[in-house]
Batch of 3 targets.
Target 1
Amino acid sequence: MSIKVVKRRREARGADMYRPRIEQALTAGKVAEAAKIAASALAAGHVDTLVLNLAAWRKEEAGDYGGAHALLKRALALAPGDVLILGSIAAVLRKQGYPEEALTILDRVVAAEPRHAAAWLERGYVLDALRADAAAIESYERALAIEPTLAPALGKLADAAARRGDTAASETYAHRALALNPAEPSVIFALALLAIEARDGASAVARLEPLLATKLAPDDRTRALTLLGDALDRQDRTAEAFAAYQRAQHSFREIYRPQLEPSRSRPSHRSFIEKIMAQVESAGAIPPPAPQSPVAGAADMHVFLLGYPRSGTTLIENVLASAPGVVALEERDTLADIDAALLANDGTMPPLDSLDPALVERLRATYWERVHQLGGPVEGKVLVDMNPFNGLKLPIIARLFPDARIVIMRRDPRDVMLSCFRISFTPGTAAWALSDLTEAARHYDALMRLIDRCRETLPLAYHEVRYDRLVTEFEPTVHALADFIGLEWTDEFTRFDRTAKSRGVRTASETQVRKGLYNGGGQWRRYADALAPVLPILDPWIARFGSDA
């Protein structure tokens, strides 16, 4: 008998020793025990798709997403096209902070197996991470149509309804989910949010604290802590609220540290801004470029709305979107192709004033094609392209779109910092910066300095909107903005809350904007002690944009 045959028989006997135990544990519903056995089998050199899948699940549960991904890729090599394995890979990619890649895989899965309820559910999770609310809801509904007792899908629909202010729908979904699983996290989130919106912080705390005492998925723990902070804030227990926000941000950083913590190969978002600033200062004042040829499909008026997260950009975007003839794109990645061509990972740009004219025309055309894909036709209309961080793209905007109008939203930096710290942002290098209060203040300072320098050196038309004046002097403030853009006044501007409800809001400002006009300024005073360490960094901007300035 050959050595190879003897080795294969030994491997088969070893696999036979593990496989029945794994299947017995799975039959009994003991997934963790089955995964532990699978890990032992893997360590002993016994490899098949079931063993790899379970061992990957164990690593995923432990937060080792990279290790789980590696094992799942090995499983996929043994069973190419397996929809269960592909779905697991997508889930790990989402948890690693790569939702776009996860969505691509899941679209393949549901196309190959349309009745794969778990894939539709995971697709909903991914779309939620991308803040594509309507598409996420559709995915959860597809999952429920296949498996009506899928409590997580019901919970997610309850949560989505709560966020858009539909109390009746949220409670209906929540009651169905609770009958299936009283501890479903997304249901607790929905009911807690409804209580917070009703100013019943005590009820929200009573729901969230028992949930936090259980084992939660890392992202769910972050969300629960953020909501707990909001619930405590409703009771004016600000010291406890801030402690909850700190715990939430710590949770976020622990989850995404491997993907987002700055390193030599991955510069911080602040250093990215500072690199652009150095290039702007080196270039000095830039003369207006030569007239550019019209681009097919371009809007009649092009507006970039920017500032800083939580400064009021979503509010203004919905005000403008209320006017007839305005197409508004809320934090859509319209500049992705341009960034890929002109921005390196560390913020380095080529000399923009000497770009090949053919490249400029190609990038301009690509931009408008992308706008058309994301927002539909814009010819003859006004396009409002809103992204708070587009301030760092001003040098590129000035080169490619010199006729664009730039609207800069300004708000008291103390309220901005507090509001950013109270929010769970979509994972990314900017979100990492905002998860630490001191780094957030330095990041804010860097971006404000860059915007100031660009205003001094780049030939663009600028207009500032102050949040404190918008909420106290709405009509004159919006009149001035409309005049700058070239829009006629319409009473529809005042109905922006209805616009927000009908079109949906993709940003963290969803619950605020749909309430209508209210003055959310001055909240920082209740947290003055917590903010005190970063005030020296913010002082120059407080002097300029503070609500008491």
Target 2
Amino acid sequence: MRGKKLRFLMVALFAVLLIFGFSGKHDNASKTENKADAAVLATVPGYGTPSADPISIFFVNFTTGYSLQPQDQFTYVNNPKTLTTFFSKSILDGLNISLLDHFQWYQSSDEGVTWTKVSGATKEDLKVTPTKVGTVYYQLENKLYTAISFFSPTYYSKVASVTTLKDPVNARGISVNVDDNYLYNNLEHAAVTFAHATPDPLDSTGVISWSIDDPSLATIDSTTGQITANTSGKSGTVKVTGTMDNYDGSKPSDTKEVRIGGGLDDQTVDQGKTATFDLQGKFSAAPNSVVWHKVDSNNKDTVVSSGTSTSYTTPATTPSDDKTHYYAVVTIKQSGTSDQVITTNHAQLNVNIDKTPDVKVTNKMENLTDNDGNTDTALNNVINGDQAKITGTITDSNKYSKLTNGTFRIKLPGNIQNTTLKIDGNTEQYSIKPIDDQSAYITFDGIDFTNSKTHTYELDFESIQDSNLAFNTKVELLGTDSDGNSTGEPYSGDNLLINFTDGSVQLEANDVDFGTLTYENVGKSVDGIVKDNDNLLNVTDNRRDKSARSITLKQDTLFMNGTKKLKAILSFNDGSGNTPTPITEEATTVASSSDDAAIPSVGSKNGQGLELMLSNQAIQTGTYTSTLNWTITNAP
């Protein structure tokens, strides 16, 4: 069965070579044909079974094998090609000086059916110059021994082909990649990786050469693409460039970036967020131990995590974490050798400190003349001559705040005098900035928040307001930063209400309408209606000293229509369910207040009202009115 399969594959390959030979499309070979070739090559058995790739951690090899495998090549007659490899020994093998490399290349021209030694090919690299069209397969053997090879460990590379075309094929472009995009600069032995290039089309016959833009960070072998990092701790990013020299003189190229560093990157986060430090690079297996350290601003070194994790996440950051450093100590154990210990660079944690001001304004008002019935945020019955004060604090709780200076501001009415302002106990010269005809801002600039985060204020004034006025205000702070820029909207305390009054009692009597009456109403009580269901008498008591008072009511005139009189009885219903009290030309007490209580209003809102009853008489039609007299007197 195997012989049949191989013969079939050879026929397929021969057919492909015929197509190349007669089509004439040498520099534009189809991708379909290249893929078919790759499928054939993948089935070719080697002289020996290819060894597994070496396992490495932090570029330290735990197993032995080929770090760089030979790559399939395309060329044309008499154009040389080089197969390159890189053989890496494990830590243990590297310490055994008796294990020497013994390289030998093998070749097969019949798709792996038979293999023969390549004469004189006893190095890692093999240069071949084909003289005829076709495909030859190659494999490298390496035996590690000193004098006796019988029991020596043997390692085989992967099988690679060199396919010779009749004519050269030019690449339209190439794609570059690297085995590792991060190399350490702080290892005992320089970190190494390899760059690779894939041409388009795959059967391009040009030669790849390699270069790097900053040799102080890393060097590169122009032929093999081996990248070697510096061991002096210099960090940065290099650009690796692969260039293919085509037969027609064109030079398509591509680049790939490789970072060189100490294993950790600096991190920047906002205050309150966590930061994550990751060990950079690829790992074939986990390290045996990873111990994470934190170094604070006082150079105190603290272990923050132990285990095998290649990543560490900090707790939620605070301003004190800014400019702290983190590093990891990585231990790799290998049986028969001493532990390999690698210490990363110290990566800095930058915390974007929240500098938003956290300002709180407290306030308290007091009427120094008479503070009865007042609260911290409302002064009632402030009359002409009263002394009042507003006190409080302004505090910025954010010690890292950008607030450096502030302006005290409060709106006050124009009818005040003897005003003084104290900031932190010191009497200050304030400014007055008019708002309108009735009010102005009292302001003071230059409150320093750099050295002190809390300031007190006291504002004293005397009222000369002799009319009713409800005045709303609040204490505000306008902030600026060190550059003189505003920190935003003003910071303010609670709303404050100052009720200025004239100290008097004000009465408002409303008309009462009994509607249209007929004989059917004679002898029946009719309720009077006040417009909008308002009170009969509205009372506003602005007195500060509220002594007891009585409200009396009398009917000054009878109900008259010109000279015509209407016989009717007017009564006051106090809402208690008692018999209504007749209202006559003599004053009748209808309501009262006690000491320290406001005089109440009289009317429907308190269940009170007036009633009218027509007497049995001859009634002449018309509109009849009467005048009522409300009077407030001292209570007996």
Target 3
Amino acid sequence: MSNVAERTNATEIDAVVIGSGFAGLYSVHKLRNEMGLSVQGLDNAGGVGGTWYWNRYPGARSDTEVNVYCYFFDRDLYESWEWSERYPRHTEIRAYLNHVADRYDLRRSYQFNTQVESAVWDEESSRWIISTDRGQTFAARFLIEAVGLLSATNVPEFKGQESFKGQIYHTARWPHEDVDLSGKRVAVIGTGSSGIQVISELAPVVDHLTVFQRTPQWVVPSKHRPIDPELTKRIHDDYEGYHHSVIHSTTSFGFDESQISAESVSEDERHKRFEEVYNDGGGFQYMFRAFNDVGTSMVANKAATDVIEKKIRETVKDPALAEKLIPSEIYARRPLCCDNYYESFNRDNVTLVDVKETPITEFTENGVKVGDTEYEVDVIVLATGFDAVSGNQLRIHHEGRDGLELRDKWKERTKSYLGMTINGFPNLFMVYGPMGPFTNQPPVHEFQINWIADAIKYTLESGAATIEPTAEAENQWMVTCDEGAAATLFPKVNSWINGANVPGKPVVNYFFMGGMDAYAAITDADKASNFSEHFRIERKEPAAV
């Protein structure tokens, strides 16, 4: 037993991985199966899936096309797994992740139903001392946090909430047993990505659906259908080339991103092109495939919303209701797509309540009160989203060098280098952490984990004890990220992208908006330099395991 084990009564391990979603599973596979390290995976869920372990609400499905919402590291896995739809339901995504866990024997390295409570850096041994709610302690040389961008639930508290006699569910913590809402009076609070899906799914099923809308959304149809066989063939014919094109693109969504500026064509041509993409379906495609400047040009942005506004007015039969569903904001939130969303409001059993104009005052025994009006319901669904990007990291107590607490370091705003490393927190790596690229996640997860694995490999092979970014590198990265974000339209709208959905959270930029291709070039340069330019490499040998 080493000194650190004697002092802390800890189980010693090369690496602890927190999370068992796309990022966590691949982290365990990469570090254990490919690098031969001893790895302990931990997750507070009862099984594999990450966000998808919890996301079981009616209508829950991916809004990223599945040809890029999957793993690429094993071609046989990619080609042997058959998806039923371009935007699969939560059950199918969970089945896929469970298949991956079984295929690569990953479960034996995981402990589920386990909450990581603290991660404290031990300077003497150069290890992270990680404590769980089970009273366990692990001493890990490396800590990989694959805790999820959209995993920490945002649960608002309403006056009188405890008095409501019916059931209250949150979309991100939906019960695992069947919930039969047929014939029930249901309230949905929230109209973000989860909200629009649950509204569209429940409207034909429930007795009455009351939608409490604070912020209208720009929504385009998904056009659910099987995967295009021609696309599948093209990928199979040039698998490596396709994967390369996904990584070396702006968004990593796997479609052909436009190289044309909306400002370079006539207004009629703009509207015609947006109509074409709208009719093909897909929120991210609508923002990034029609033209290349929807996120940066007010001209392009206005043309995009003109078409959606026209579709809303054509779809919603009541002109006054259509007016309430049309956003006053520009198109600079997470792009949303869902079939039959606006059509739901033509149903006699669906009521829209504007709670921005008149906020919810309280929950009562029988329902939800807005101003002086009470809406009686049997079930309340909170579709209020997530404490995104930094939420799950901050729910764990972190202490880095010299007792520096992560919550204190991030009090004014989150800071990192590359969205993967933090100055003052050696040997700690985040997958898709704050200040990472604003892209599709699973392929970028793989890219980042491969980079993390290379950083760990270099640390081990060079005989170094620790690796961490310098303060200068971190500060410059923040400047780079902020300058990039300022060149876009996203800061002009308050959303989870800038933390505005959580009371008290700093409303700032949380992303690198320069595109995945540029991000890959920066991270590849660090790797090519043996991490010499932007990292502090401590050469002392840590205490023996």
